[in-house]
Design a protein that fits this description.
AA/rel_permease1; transmembrane; Amino acid permease; transmembrane transporter activity; 4 strands; 2% strand; transport; 512 residues; two-stranded antiparallel sheet; Amino acid/polyamine transporter I
């Protein structure tokens, strides 16, 4: 049996044993939700610590750097990854965290646009922001499953180089297996999900590479630029290589999409967002530096039959297929956990969008299972869309890179509009009492927003370019094609049917 947003009777309050007695801040958050027409339907199972753990697992920066290191090594070499690392991410997350502190809701970006945009732009701007956000999150979540599935297949290639010829359809089946696992965990294992999404293996891996891998000198890591991508302009090649530095920091907005499943969201959501970037960034920086010093023969890594340079690196360092297999399995399982965490966040965004009558068949997808207290139908539709995305891999040898590019394009496109509206429209209309606990201030706020917008534009543009030249149908970057198709479908639905139902999320109007 399931319930719709009107069924207040089915709402279960959080147990006092989970979080303690509600504080005034928590009660005010609940009252604000009710005053805006929202009904609490999801269990509040996330504390600030478990939400932070989920964000750590979803971003999994050190694992993500490992999986996508090839883009930087091809387009600039070791310095490209080192100097681009961490650029822009702090400004973006702080800008979004400030908005999330003002308006914590599962809708995230599209809710913020509806609050901050001028009145005559709210409906269209918020709807397309939400549609882009969902598309970006679907692709971003899929990228973790792609990494895990293709790495599991690569383990077979590494251990049976003479007898096993990897097929794309087999890689797709591995990918689908990861997606099925994530859906299972999200539907039936959600009570333990906040406590199980923890990264593992970093210290051990640092020790292994530190002790066993031959080391380059500092000149190689910090100075020696290389360009094997085919791009004639080294500057363009360098910027294309930023994909390796941008992708590992995606996903911190997951905290805001879980705002309705935790106490004190106006305080705890910004804490989880910013701290996950800082903690992931510190861990990832140490790991990135170790990898760059331990690369060995770069050409051997880039031509590895496994398709992943880091697998060849592990094999070269340990000189043991068994040892390298264990290390790859840890990386892959981290990606599996990231996919499960990503599905949690994405399904909540889709559910929130359906709650506002903004997706096809909203009344069907908005329902929440009364027993499990999770949006099962939203979880399933996201999983099916992710499975369909896997079909790209059957016809494109560089589909994994295209999925990475689509992740940056989709996620960054959903980040930029709220920040622009906050800079141009929100700050002049917000009074001090309307800000949340996390506030950047009247001086640092606009500066931070401008830095974030500049980096978002640069990273978005260069994420759409192919990673190598010359371009062929097999290595083409299809991120813009897929995004255009997603927007075309969304536009036809919205202007043909959706705008009759969608009137914007229930918000408190701050700019008349």
């Amino acid at each position: 049996m399931s319930i719709g947003p009107e069924s207040v009777e089915a709402v279960k309050m959080v147990d006092e044993n989970d979080f303690g007695i509600s504080s005034p801040d928590e009660r005010s958050d609940n009252e604000a939700m009710k005053s805006e027409g929202q009904v609490e339907e999801l269990r509040r199972v996330f504390s600030v610590w478990s939400l932070g753990a989920l964000c750590l697992a979803l971003m999994a920066t050190w694992e993500a750097v490992t999986s996508v290191v090839a883009a930087a090594l091809t387009n600039g070499g070791a310095p490209c990854l080192f100097y681009n690392y961490f650029v822009g991410s702090i400004a973006i997350v702080c800008s979004l965290a400030e908005i999330a502190s003002i308006y914590p809701t599962a809708g995230g970006q599209y809710h913020w646009v509806a609050v901050l945009a001028p009145k005559n732009q709210r409906i269209v701007a918020s709807w397309f922001t939400g549609w882009i956000s969902i598309g970006g999150q679907i692709v971003f979540t899929s990228s973790a499953a792609f990494a895990a599935g293709l790495q599991l297949q690569a383990i077979i290639t590494m251990n049976h180089p003479d007898t096993y010829i990897p097929q794309r359809w087999q890689g797709m089946l591995f990918y689908w297996l990861v997606l099925v696992y994530a859906a299972t965990v999200n539907i039936w294992g959600s009570r333990v999900l906040p406590h199980t999404n923890l990264a593992a293996g970093l210290i051990a891996f640092m020790a292994i590479l530190g002790a066993m891998a031959p080391k380059h000198d500092a000149h190689y890591v910090f100075v020696e630029v290389s360009n094997t991508s085919g791009w004639e302009n080294n500057g363009v090649s360098w910027l294309v290589g930023t994909l390796s530095a941008v992708y590992p920091f995606l996903g911190y907005d997951a905290a805001c999409h879980m705002a309705e499943e935790m106490p004190h969201p106006s305080r705890n959501v910004p804490i989880a967002m910013v701290s996950s970037v800082i903690v992931n960034g510190i861990m990832g920086l140490g790991w990135t530096t170790m990898i760059l010093f331990s690369l060995g023969d770069l050409n051997e890594l880039l031509t590895s039959p496994t398709g992943f340079p880091f697998i060849q690196l592990f094999l070269n360092a340990t000189k043991s297929s068994a040892g390298a297999t264990v290390m790859v399995v840890v990386i892959s399982l981290t990606a599996v956990a990231a996919n499960a965490a990503g599905l949690t966040s994405t399904s909540r965004t889709y559910w929130a969008f359906a709650r506002d009558s903004a997706v096809p068949y909203s009344k069907y997808f908005v329902e929440v299972d009364t027993k499990l207290q999770v949006p099962v139908r939203a979880i399933m539709v996201v999983t099916v869309l992710e499975m369909l995305l896997g079909l790209i891999y059957l016809g494109n040898s560089t589909a994994f890179n295209a999925v990475l590019s689509m992740s940056v394009l989709g996620m960054y496109a959903s980040y930029i509009l709220p920040i622009i509206y906050m800079l141009l429209n929100g700050r002049k209309n917000l009074e001090n009492g309307q800000y949340g606990p996390f506030q950047l201030g009247r001086i640092m706020g606009p500066i931070t927003n401008l830095i974030a917008i500049c980096w978002l534009v640069v990273a978005t543009v260069f994420s759409t370019l192919p990673s190598v030249e010359p371009v062929t149908p097999q290595n083409m970057n299809y991120s813009t094609v897929v995004m255009a198709g997603w927007l075309l479908f969304g536009g036809v639905f919205f202007f043909g049917f959706g705008r009759r139902e969608y009137t914007g999320p229930s918000t408190e109007v701050i700019n008349k």
